[in-house]
Design a protein that fits this description.
The protein is α/β, with parallel strands linked by helices. 54% of the residues lie in helices and 10% in strands.
Length: 426
């Protein structure tokens, strides 16, 4: 009998999953805003896992001395050049014209660009080389690591704008991760993963606070991990009381591994799904049981037994938002004996990008509430991603970013513009 994932034959399912992970939608403006918040604003809020060194210093160490402002200025300059002129019509950009030091420019290109022979070697390894992950139809890793084609001592051509955007936003995590492991060892690498996970949790909580009801029955509608922990047992990251239902959410920063993304390996996907969803469902389950059973506890965040609970896993990294994947994930959670309380709705799995999109939709439509969106999404018969649901709900109307994202975006772009203009005039 042929194996399947969510009712879809395994080979086809894995091809669709690899495609969804590679082509995950992104909003560059939101990514820039998130990057600025993660790397400059939230550091002072880290309580459980402070970094080994200041974040700016860790980026500088990982890049061989490039300041994060220079890094982002060069990356944005390349993106703006490609976006304005077209990826091939405008030819390469001479980074020397951006006014960044020759030393930083050279290091930047060594890290993030390759020439034609270099890419040819990476994409066509000798038969004796053990690089099977680069021989699949989804093997874009050489371009993900180095999204620039080096054309001269200081010239580069953007290969793919999306890969460039990811490399200098989400993938800054990997830049530090690999450096910590190579230079400082596994203990430092593990500490960094914990630091970054806490940064992602902070961002998710800020987003959730922004669209939670201000007050409900005289009590704050948003409650934190620390408040849930007072009930005893494992604790989810946050909750929101919407009155007719309660959201209980846990944030996970698990990155789907190369074997899943590039090789479409079903065994690797099963492990990824367990770490990204099933393990988190266990924490959600324990927290929900405490909310249901310990209603007389003096620190109960609701002060009552909730009649309806919406469990949510927030994926800090990309997640393949396909109906059969959600179906498969929920079945795996049920098979593990989790979230079977009659008060629980189906498990929702949303990404950090989708929370950002939700905040933008809510900011653009003042009459719409997060509670109404969640209710509608729960009832959505397509059982697709929150992204697709929000597109249908919004109907293509023009959106204005919420202040949580628009303010750091404007600050980041102003900093880049000021830096480039200053350097060009120097």
């Amino acid at each position: 009998m042929e194996r399947s994932i969510g009712g879809v034959p395994e080979p086809l399912a894995m091809s669709l999953i690899a495609n969804a992970l590679f082509n995950a939608s992104l909003n560059y403006g939101d990514l820039i805003a998130r990057t600025r918040l993660l790397w400059t604003e939230y550091e002072s809020q880290l309580l459980r896992f402070p970094p080994r060194a200041p974040l700016a210093e860790m980026i500088r160490d990982a890049t061989g001395g490039i300041e994060i402002d220079d890094l982002l200025a060069m990356a944005f300059g390349l993106f703006a050049h490609a976006n304005t002129t077209g990826l091939d019509a405008g030819g390469p950009l001479d980074l020397a014209k951006l006014g960044i030091s020759a030393e930083s420019t050279s290091r930047f290109l060594d890290l993030f660009a390759d020439d034609r022979p270099g890419f040819a070697a990476a994409l066509n390894p000798p038969p004796s080389a053990v690089v099977s992950s680069q021989q699949s139809e989804w093997s874009f890793i050489p371009f993900e690591l180095k999204p620039l084609l080096r054309m001269g001592p200081s010239e580069a051509l953007v290969i793919d704008a999306r890969l460039l955007q990811r490399r200098f936003t989400q993938a800054l995590y990997w830049l530090v991760h690999d450096h910590e492991k190579a230079v400082h060892g596994d203990t430092a690498r593990n500490r960094w993963t914990q630091t970054y996970s806490e940064l992602i949790e902070i961002h998710a909580e800020h987003l959730a606070r922004s669209f939670a009801p201000t007050v409900l029955d005289g009590e704050p509608a948003f409650f934190t991990e620390e408040r849930i922990a007072k009930l005893g047992g494992a604790n989810a990251d946050f909750g929101i009381d919407f009155g007719s239902f309660v959201v209980v959410a846990d944030v996970v920063q698990h990155q789907f591994v190369v074997a899943t993304r590039a090789q479409a390996d079903p065994c690797a996907f099963a492990t990824d799904l367990r770490r990204a969803v099933v393990d988190k469902a266990q924490q959600l389950d324990k927290s929900i049981r405490m909310l249901l059973e310990r209603t007389n506890h003096p620190d109960h965040p609701l002060g009552r037994r909730p009649s309806r609970v919406v469990p949510i896993v927030v994926a800090g990294a990309d997640f393949p938002g396909i109906p059969f994947v959600y179906k498969h994930a929920r079945r795996a959670v049920a098979d593990a004996g989790r979230l079977r309380q009659v008060e629980c709705t189906k498990l929702l799995i949303v990404t950090l990008s989708e929370l950002e999109m939700l905040s933008t939709v809510l900011a653009s439509e003042p009459g719409l509430s997060a509670g109404a969106v969640i209710e509608g999404y729960l009832d959505d018969e397509t059982d697709g991603s929150l992204t697709n649901y929000l597109y249908r709900l919004n109907g293509g109307a023009e959106l204005a970013r919420a202040p949580l994202l628009s303010e750091p975006l404007h600050e980041a772009l102003a900093d880049v513009e000021r830096r480039l203009l200053t350097n060009a005039g120097a």
